[in-house]
Write a structure and sequence with these properties.
The protein is mainly alpha-helical. The chain has 29 helices and 2 strands. Helices cover 63% and strands 1% of the residues. α6 crosses α8 (160-178) and α24 crosses α25 (444-457). Keywords: Metal-binding, Zinc, Zinc-finger.
Length: 527
């Protein structure tokens, strides 16, 4: 079984633990038919091409796009290769571009995506300025699916009309979808319908997600400065379906990596209500995005931590209720939900008041048990699943490391309680011991750091726990040796392990320390 590239793993995992970001939204697969034939634009409704605005006459005839039903000229609706393959007659240039890109998805690497050909097509540039919302929505879909690298983001950011279009589409579709009387919106077939409004809004939200799915703060900053945050909060209206609300939370999560945006989101009047309602949906993807958003807010805006778990009863939630939503049946929650929850708690526990409240809800017991449960399960998992398990273990151990590091000087009593809880589970210690030597995954870093802190802050407790189990002691010695005698990928792990060895030497030079030293010397002789 191939071991993943350690450098790639640590880069991706540390980035995710810091920002709570996925790379991008999945490809938005286009329907072969957007509008039924009965809802096509009538010939008498269009005196000019709905893309280039060229007048129709004897030589410039009308053509219907078989996908979107819009009336266009011969130039803007040629008989294309993709139309012939699908048995259709004609596709307009927008629909043709959408379907052509769809045929390439899965074959292109992220770096291969480019929109320069669209930007140089005058008809495509004009299409986004039209009042026809279905047409504009498909241009947005095209750019959403193309937005896979910073080169594309730079190309898009140079076109302000596009963002104006996205903003207008979002406002109009939200107004339509939340209106009780939708008849007032329908004036012609080029306007919105229930069948077209939801996909258009999803395209806009998907574009925002992909535009900001990068470690470069320039792009979330651009959207924040162009007032997209307020629009995204309107997408969290209960009148909208769960998919649209999920995408809105995801978009807010991405934008929150920009500090000013994070502060604006945290102080928004609807923020607490929105996150509690989103967690309460019990929909995996919504919970994941909500926890990731909360974790980023807690990291970037420390003063907002208390508001993330409100102490006083609100209309929406009490502090323990917010935690119980996630902690109930935690073992059966998704791996990402678990990882994002530990990531959030890492930040919240840095506040003493919150830490004590969180501890009273059995959070640390939950954390230790979650890691311990992976002791036997991990061996049965595929390499792919194993990577996700390491994400959970890494985020859980990182939580303990951060908490001990934060309070080791000022609250030793609390630190000792945490260490004793960790040492009370042999299964937990077995997992972190094995992770120290597992340089194929990120978890080796927090595992070695936690072991270092436990030997520094609670040496008697951890030493007794390790030497009290022959199996654990054997695994521990093997892991420490593996992290020190050969060139380990992460110097930090080697340094932490060397500190542990020195602590053991001061405690018991003739016992476990001698075993480790003998093994090291034996390895040197073999070389």
């Amino acid at each position: 079984m191939a071991v993943p590239n350690p450098a790639d793993d640590i880069r991706k995992t540390e980035f995710a633990l810091k920002n709570g970001l996925d790379v991008a939204l999945s490809i938005s697969y286009p329907l072969k038919t957007l509008v039924e034939r009965s809802d096509w634009i009538e010939d008498n409704e269009a005196n000019s091409c709905m893309i280039c605005n060229g007048d129709f006459n004897l030589f410039n005839r009308r053509h219907h796009c078989r996908r979107c039903g819009r009336v266009t000229c011969d130039k803007c609706c040629p008989k294309s290769f993709f139309a012939e393959l699908s048995g259709q007659d004609r596709l307009c240039l927008v629909c043709n571009a959408v379907m052509e890109l769809d045929s390439k998805n899965g074959k292109l690497m992220a770096a291969d995506y480019d929109i320069m050909s669209y930007m140089q097509d005058q008809a495509m540039l004009v299409a986004i300025t039209r009042k026809d919302m279905v047409m504009c929505g498909e241009v947005v879909r095209l750019f959403q699916n193309s937005c896979r690298n910073d080169k594309v983001r730079e190309q898009i950011i140079s076109w302000p009309d596009f963002f104006t279009c996205v903003k207008q589409l979002m406002k109009k579709t939200i107004a339509f979808l939340t209106a009780k009387d939708k008849s007032t919106f329908f004036t012609s077939k080029s306007e919105l319908s229930q069948a077209t409004a939801s996909p258009i809004l999803a395209n806009c939200l998907g574009f925002i997600i992909n535009f900001t799915a990068t470690g470069t703060p320039k792009y979330p900053q651009f959207l924040f400065e162009n007032e997209f945050v307020d629009i995204l909060f309107t997408c969290l209206n209960k009148e909208l379906d769960l998919l649209r609300r999920e995408l809105a939370i995801w978009a807010l999560r991405n934008i929150s990596q920009y500090e000013k945006a994070a502060k604006a989101i945290a102080s928004h009047a609807d923020f607490n209500r929105a996150i509690y309602e989103s967690l309460g949906t019990n929909v995996k993807n919504i919970q994941d995005s909500t926890l990731a958003l909360m974790g980023t807010i807690a990291r970037i805006v420390p003063e907002a931590r208390v508001s993330l778990l409100p102490l006083n009863p609100l209309v929406c939630a009490k502090r323990n209720e917010t935690m119980s939503i996630v902690q109930t049946d935690f073992k059966n929650k998704s791996i990402l939900t678990q990882a994002y929850y530990f990531r959030l708690m890492t930040q919240l526990c840095k506040d003493v008041e919150l830490r004590n409240e969180i501890a009273s809800q059995n959070f640390f017991t939950l954390l230790v048990q979650t890691v311990a449960d992976f002791e036997k399960e991990e061996e049965k998992m595929s390499n792919n699943k194993n990577a996700y398990v390491n994400y959970v273990i890494g985020s859980a151990l990182n939580c303990l490391v951060q908490i001990i590091d934060t309070f080791k000087e000022d609250d030793d009593e609390f630190v000792q309680k945490v260490i004793k809880m960790c040492c009370s589970s042999t299964a937990f210690l077995n997992v972190i011991t094995k992770k120290i030597a597992d340089q194929g995954f990120y978890a080796c870093k927090p595992a070695s750091a936690l072991m270092k802190f436990m030997f520094s802050q609670g040496q008697e407790t951890i030493y007794k726990a390790i030497t009290g189990s022959k199996g654990l002691k054997k695994e521990f010695v093997k892991a420490i040796i593996a992290a020190t005698i050969k060139e380990f990928v992460y110097k930090e792990v080697t340094d932490n392990s060397m500190i542990v060895i020195k602590k053991i030497g001061k405690k018991d030079a003739a016992g476990m320390y001698k075993e480790i030293k003998d093994a090291v010397n034996e390895n040197k002789n073999d070389e």
